[in-house]
Amino acid sequence: MASLRMAATALRNFNRVSLLSRGVNHAVRCSPIVMTRCTLHASARLDTAKLIDGKKLSAEISEEVKQEVDDWMLKEEMIKPDGASLFMLLGNRRPHLSVVLVGDNPASKSYIKSKTNGCDKVGIDSKTHVLSDAITQDELLAFVDNLNKDDGVDGILVQLPLPKHMDERTVCNAVVPSKDVDGFHALNVGRFCLNDNAFLPATAAGVMEMIYRYKIPTFGKHAVILGRSKNVGMPIMMMLHSDGSGDATATICHRYTPPEQLLINTKMADILVVAVGIPGLIKADMVKPGAAIIDVGINRITGPDGKQRLVGDVDFEGVSKVASYITPVPGGVGPMTVAMLLKNTIAAAKKIYKY
Q1: pTM, 2 dp
Q2: Which tens digits make up the pLDDT trace of 180-233?
Q3: Of 77, 229, 254, 288, which residue is least crowded by CB atoms under 10 Å?
Q4: Of the listed 50, 154, 159, 295, which one is catalytic?
């Protein structure tokens, strides 16, 4: 019960989900997620959970995106007489992603660097526009509108969080839906909730892609999501319970969930997604044996040696001895966010979704 009391206290005290800031969104129809009616997790009998390797999966997806970009551009390799390679572009122009950063938040800069590096690897052009945090909201909206009107820009990403004097919902809705590769525009959110063609928030898409590619069963299972953020918890819940996609019974817990109810839910969960930004919140005695654990949290802490390191919301060492599947931090959900952003950017360039 000690870990339960600690979890309840932590959930009451946290003010805002501290996650991966943001990134890719998965398009519902671009890469349909169809869950299988499998039996209980095959590795549930093991003493150690199977690792869900987000770094490996993201590399696979990035390679798929690279091939899609090459096909879109009709990029053809010609071998010259001297043996050197010459690439000829016979089709469409290279996809372009514009990233907008307001201020100089170090964490945001780090996230953006991982996204632009990902673009470089798959052949997507990217440009980061750094604006002063003294800019007004109206000035930012005007800047975004210019990107909306630029035919050379396929995807637009406004890095969150924004300065306190700006309303994130207003700014997210300023990005035209067809270029909203983050999937944060209200139209994309609404279409996604109706199981229609739309871009999905990156982290949610990455989580579902992990579940899909590791063949973790969702049909008829109980999925519990800790954290109800509009960009992570809510879309994950929607995808897990969606008819024909997840078909799970999905429950969301948050800071006002009573401690005893929190424990009941976590111990009943076949799939437990934790996204609250509280280091080590979930302990082994709060997890159902054989459950699949998706740790979305990414927290920077100082260890006993005085060095900083990244940890998740789950006590990895303890929970990995109880669960059937588990994601590491780092190297789990984080890389998947970038991969799904790349996937959405090529989808935006190809104008797969009609608005």
Answers
A1: 0.83
A2: 999 999 999 999 999 899 999 999 999 999 999 999 999 999 999 999 999 999
A3: 77
A4: 159
288 is annotated as an active-site residue: no
**75 included as an active-site residue:** no
Residues 137 and 161 in one domain: yes
Contact 19, 229 (CB under 8 A): yes
| 182 a catalytic residue | yes
Same domain, 285 and 206: yes
Is residue 34 included in any domain, yes or no?
no
**Could you tell me which residues come within 8 angstroms of residue 142 by beta carbon, excluding any fewer than 6 positions away?**
none
Encode pLDDT of 20-69 as tens digits: 333 333 333 333 333 334 444 444 444 789 999 999 999 999 999 999 99
Q: Which domain holds residue 309?
A: 200-335
- In the chain (355 residues long), the average pLDDT of successive 10-residue segments reads 55 43 35 39 61 98 97 73 67 95 96 97 98 98 99 98 97 98 96 92 96 97 97 95 92 95 98 97 98 97 91 97 98 97 97 88
The domain tally of the chain equals 2
Whole-number Cα distances in Å, 11 to 24, 81, 268: 27, 66, 19
| 315 and 33 Cβ atoms separated by less than 8 Å | no
CB 214 within 8 A of CB 325: yes
Instruction: Out of 182, 247, 295, 313, pick the active-site residue.
Output: 182
The residue from 50, 115, 179, 343 that is catalytic is 115
Q: Compute CA distances 113 → 99, 117, 321, whole Å.
A: 10, 6, 34
- Asked whether residue 120 falls in the same domain as residue 182, the answer is yes
